[in-house]
Design goal:
heterodimer, A: about 290 residues, mainly alpha, two-stranded antiparallel ribbon, globular, B: about 270 residues, alpha/beta, nine-stranded mixed sheet, two-stranded parallel sheet, 10 helices, about 25% strand
């Protein structure tokens, strides 16, 4: 091996080593700052109590409403983005001709390039008054608004990854199906989609991870009320919004500070599990 | 030879920058409420003294106080007073937090302009925020559910509201808790049944300020402490300010500096 090769190997080795160091550094500090919250509350109380009153005297650190808030808005977002994203993927990959596809694909991907604060502004200034008018709601900043905005943000993730996986399905599968007398719709639903199943599931889980971790949008449009919602039109306070809104004004080293890191740990565990599931799905496909 | 001198000079130049900059640099961090004052004052001060470089950051009251403790800022802005725990932590690090009051601020209670209510008492305000009164008609208004809008429980503005109005009674869980004064103002302007509170500097025509205990939040009523929901804004320094820090704070306290305070929508000290 010559010197140049060695140098190149070392540089790439250092680069990959650095990412591992950063990752473990972040995880370590997360747990180091977050675990002390359990000196003030129990794990059971932290996760299953719905009262989040961190600055009251005495404070209450129950994050159930925040966890429920996160899941409500994320599932709402998926309910919007799965049909839209999958539909767009099927159209661009299976139905559209080459010209349309070449225009459509970058436009959908452009959605992913819009900064989340712009989505947030849109939800706050435009969608919120619209919801008040159309549904006669007392308030436009709620779980429904956040679900719509997050759903639109997740569409490009689901559509581009699903589309990639649909287009890797060999052409002869489609031809065989058509030759057996199936029409286009039957071919897509019964042959192509099942064959691309793992890619589609993967895209949905990635979309889930994106939606549950998104901070700016839920901070701006979810309303921020720490309650378990009675309906989709109630304001909620998802976990990332809580951390982002309160961290700046919280005195370092206080129970509240540690509780915010505790929320970050829960969020980390949820996204970690979703990544594990995608790895599992991809691995099963390889076998 | 020529080849070697250049990098040496570069290194020397880099070393010289911080050494040269020490006495001409001022770093300010903290409360987003105090931020516009600090920003405008810094710009005016740098105009007068071009050799001075002042950098101003936000981050929140706690960040401001923590920055002074860790020495990452000369001045820490806060819209609340320092807490006993923070004073103790600072002392452990050999830092004595010194409070410089730079402005007065009132927290105005605002409603949507379509609301017929023009004034509330502190007790009524408290029962609205506690979730006991849920419809405007109970207060003599139209039949519309009240949408409570509050600030995040850790913001300085909330802390003052909590202390002066709520007296540690929890705000209803259904209350919207928004992240900034601007977010509160814009939400109230497009939500008919809403009530909220913002710093006086954030009042505009899209929302309607109401009287509290029959007192309108104005410069006079806040300076005279007649208006019940008022506070001071402060800049914390390590011990009594000296050098450039002192000059800058003296500038804010001067007639010219207090004019900037007023221009930013706050209330001057005198």
């Amino acid at each position: 091996m010559n010197f140049k090769d060695k140098l190149f190997n070392t540089i790439t080795y250092i680069a990959s080593f650095c990412t591992i160091v950063f990752l473990f550094g972040i995880i370590l500090s997360l747990f180091f700052e977050g675990l002390p919250v359990f000196k003030f509350t129990t794990i059971k109380d932290f996760i299953f109590n719905k009262d989040w009153y961190p600055t009251m005297n005495p404070p209450k650190f129950g994050i159930l409403s925040l966890i429920v808030g996160s899941f409500v808005v994320t599932l709402g977002a998926l309910a919007i983005s799965i049909p839209l994203g999958l539909g767009a993927a099927i159209y661009t990959s299976e139905i559209a001709n080459k010209k349309v596809k070449e225009i459509l694909k970058p436009i959908i991907e452009l959605l992913a390039g819009i900064p989340s604060v712009v989505y947030g502004l849109f939800g706050m200034a435009f969608l919120s008054p619209l919801l008040i008018k159309v549904f006669h709601l007392p308030i436009g900043l709620n779980a429904f608004n956040a679900s719509i905005i997050l759903g639109i943000m997740v569409v490009p993730i689901i559509s581009s990854i699903s589309e990639d996986s649909l287009s890797t399905i060999p052409q002869h599968l489609r031809e065989a199906s058509l030759a057996l007398g199936a029409n286009k719709w039957e071919t897509i639903m019964k042959v192509v989609l099942p064959a691309a199943k793992s890619g589609v599931i993967n895209s949905i889980i990635l979309g889930f991870g994106r939606a549950i971790g998104e901070t700016m949008v839920v901070l701006m449009v979810a309303g921020g009320a720490a309650q378990i919602p009675n309906s989709i039109f109630d304001p909620i306070r998802p976990m990332p919004a809580t951390v982002a809104a309160e961290m700046g004004e919280t005195a370092i080293g206080t129970p509240h500070f540690h509780a915010l890191f505790g929320i970050a740990i829960i969020l980390f565990i949820i996204t970690f599990i979703s990544i594990l599931i995608t790895e599992f799905v991809v691995m099963r496909k390889r076998k | 030879m020529k080849f070697k001198i250049l990098p040496i000079l570069t290194v020397l130049a880099l070393l010289a920058v911080p050494a040269f900059g020490q006495s001409n640099r001022l770093t300010i961090a903290g409360s987003t409420t105090v931020l516009p004052i600090a920003q405008a004052a810094a710009e005016a001060y740098m105009d007068l003294h071009p050799e001075i470089n002042i950098s101003v950051r936000g981050g929140g009251s706690s960040v401001g106080i923590a920055s002074v403790m860790t020495g990452t800022a000369n001045i820490g802005n806060a819209s609340r007073h320092v807490k006993t725990k923070e004073l103790a932590t600072a002392r452990e690090n050999g830092i004595e937090l010194y409070e410089n009051i730079v402005a007065n601020d009132g927290i105005a209670v605002v409603v949507n302009p379509s609301n017929t209510i023009n004034g509330l008492t502190t007790a009524q305000l408290k029962s609205i925020y506690a979730g006991e009164v849920q419809n405007w008609k109970e207060l003599g208004g139209t039949n519309k559910p009240i949408v409570i809008i509050s600030r995040d429980t850790s913001s300085g503005t909330f802390e003052v509201f909590n202390k002066l109005v709520m007296k540690n009674v929890p705000v209803a869980a259904s209350a919207l808790k928004l992240a900034s004064n601007n977010a509160v103002a814009s939400t109230i302007s497009n939500t008919p049944g809403s009530i909220g509170y913002v710093g006086l500097g954030y009042l505009n025509d899209s929302v309607k300020a109401i009287t509290i205990d029959k007192v309108m939040p104005t410069k006079k009523t806040i300076q005279s402490k007649e208006y019940p929901i008022a506070r001071t804004l402060q800049m914390y320094t390590n011990d009594e300010p000296t050098g450039l820090t002192k000059k800058f704070i003296d500038f804010i306290l001067s007639t010219e500096g207090q004019k900037i305070v007023e221009e930013q929508g706050f209330i001057s000290l005198n």
